[in-house]
Amino acid sequence: KNQVEQSPQSLIILEGKNCTLQCNYTVSPFSNLRWYKQDTGRGPVSLTIMTFSENTKSNGRYTATLDADTKQSSLHITASQLSDSASYICVVSAVGLTGGGNKLTFGTGTQLKVEL
Amino acid sequence: KAGVTQTPRYLIKTRGQQVTLSCSPISGHRSVSWYQQTPGQGLQFLFEYFSETQRNKGNFPGRFSGRQFSNSRSEMNVSTLELGDSALYLCASSFRTSGMYNEQFFGPGTRLTVL
Lengths: 116, 115
Known about the structure:
The structure holds two protein chains of two kinds.
Chain A: E1 4-7, E2 10-14, E3 19-25, E4 30-38, E5 45-51, E6 56-59, E7 62-67, E8 72-77, E9 86-94, E10 103-106, E11 110-115
Chain B: E1 5-7, E2 10-13, E3 19-24, E4 31-38, E5 42-50, E6 53-57, E7 64-68, E8 74-78, E9 87-94, E10 105-106, E11 110-114
Parallel strand pairs in B: 2-11
Antiparallel strand pairs in B: 1-3, 3-8, 4-5, 4-9, 5-6, 7-8, 9-10, 9-11
């Protein structure tokens, strides 16, 4: 069964500090992996999307890494800001083998709170 | 370029009623996916339409249905509403199907409350 597990479930850090969020998946066959940021009550916003050949991808202060061998990804946030407080969701796409196209499996997210 | 729009943004219904939600994708996008999000459950996939055809369907009862029009706009219908249907319903669009290597853009969501 395709699964995406994220850790920690929640995290509190001080403004200016760095943090790393983890994503482990068992999705197969792998197509691509995405990270989204979701502010409370709003739709998710894409941060990065990576295929198996991409080890690192950055979007401003956000850097995602992917290890397709160990099926792990991380999202590193540098110099955190209050506006980084949100839920961060890892999503993995599996190649569709029986028609209907690729299928997405969503993690339940890491709730990040940045405090002064 | 305008983003994904969803209407209405908020909706209050009573049990047993039915509801129709609307989603207008980004211009040029042919894929529209629908998700249900409840506290503690994360995003649950409902279905995806691509060029007016349902491509994938999640594990939701038949009370949940959708369709896509020739202009790629999509509607989602929920019949015989239950209290457990209270959730944020999100629509997302992409140029190719959602699972392909392309960015998926989410709308702001419709907050449905069933009383």
